[in-house]
Amino acid sequence: MPEPTAQLLQQRFSPERLGPYQAAVRGDLAQAVALYEWNAKMSGTFWITLGHVEVLIRNAMHQQLTAWSTQQHREPRWYLDPAGVLDSRRREEIAEARRRATRDGRKETPGGVVAELTFGFWRYLLTSSYDRSLWPHLRNAWPGKQFRREVQGPVTDLHELRNRIAHHEPIYYRPLKELHTKALDLASWTCPDTATWITVQCEVLTILDTRPWTVRSPSAPFQRRNPRHNQARPAPWR
User: Given pLDDT bands bounded at 50, 70 and 90, which one contains residue 236?
Assistant: First the structure.
């Protein structure tokens, strides 16, 4: 990349934004922009897979909660909390989701409300707070998983990655191959056939193979540096 172009991008995107990338390539601005471009490409690619997995697991959880609420409380709209088990934050999120689902005069439907609930909402239904109330029913969404933590762990990691991508943060130094495996494993636990489709569509590993070398990732896919070199710490999350 021509140096004037790299300098222009630094000016327009801000030195603060490109700073972590520049530090990762020992100050070379052109290489920093190349790493920034790769990070954007990987973010967009991973976003697609995360979206598929998010929709899959939220619908699986919705299905189990609907069956439980219908059987136990004769109310299929579990999000109305007929059992009185949801905490105040979840109830607030549901109220906001219902508001968005009915804007412009639209009729409320369970599917419309579910689509408006964030990934974070579903993540927090898998916390220890719901060990006795919801997990005995939600576990049916993952027949091979007995313990809540087995599911909560990867969901939490993928939610955090999703948020970093949504805020245009660096993800190049994260364990992307491991996160890719967690995403596909979670999909497979939920529905093996759908997981196969997601895997075919996923291009994360293809993009990962083109990852530029950086000083802060000695385990980059190729061009490994001597581990005796000092490694810069990843940029802190905002």
Answer: very low
Amino acid 31 reads Q
Kindly report, residue by residue over 96-126, the tens digit of the pLDDT.
999 999 999 999 999 999 999 999 999 999 9
Q: Which residue has the tokens 């222009």?
A: 8
Whether the per-residue pLDDT at 52 is higher than 90: the answer is yes
213 in Cβ contact with 222 (< 8 Å): yes
* Alpha helices by DSSP H, the chain: 3-13, 15-24, 29-73, 88-101, 110-116, 119-124, 135-138, 148-166, 176-190, 192-201, 204-208
Residue type, 210: T
Structure tokens of 81?
A: 């909390």
Q: Which residue has the tokens 């093996």?
A: 192
Q: What is the largest CA-CA distance in the chain?
A: 67
Report how far residue 121's alpha carbon sits from residue 88's, in angstroms, rounded to the nearest whole number.
12
Global pTM reads 0.86
Angle at 46 between CA 44 and CA 48, to 5 degrees: 75
Exposure pattern of 90-108 as b/e (b: 16+ CB <10 Å)? beebbeebbeebeeeeeee
105, amino acid identity: G
Both structure tokens of 24:
């990762």
DSSP character for 144?
Answer: T
39, 170 Cβ separation under 8 angstroms: yes
Reference 196, options 41, 63, 52; nearest CA is 52
Q: How confident is the model over 167-181, as a mean pLDDT?
A: 97
